[in-house]
Amino acid sequence: MTPIKAVLFDFGQVLSLPADPVVWQQMLAISGLSDADLHREYWAYRHEYDRGTYTGQSYWQQIAIGSKTVLTPAQIADLIVADVNLWSRLNTPMVEWAERLQRARIRTGILSNIGDAMAEGLKAKFAWIGGFDHCVWSYSLKLAKPEAAIYRSAAEGLATDPGAILFIDDKAENIEAAHAAGMQAIQYGRHEDFEREMRRQGLEGLLHPVAAG
Question: Which of 10, 39, 45, 89 could form a disulfide with 14 if both were Cys (CB 3.0 to 4.6 A apart)?
Answer without folding.
Answer: 10
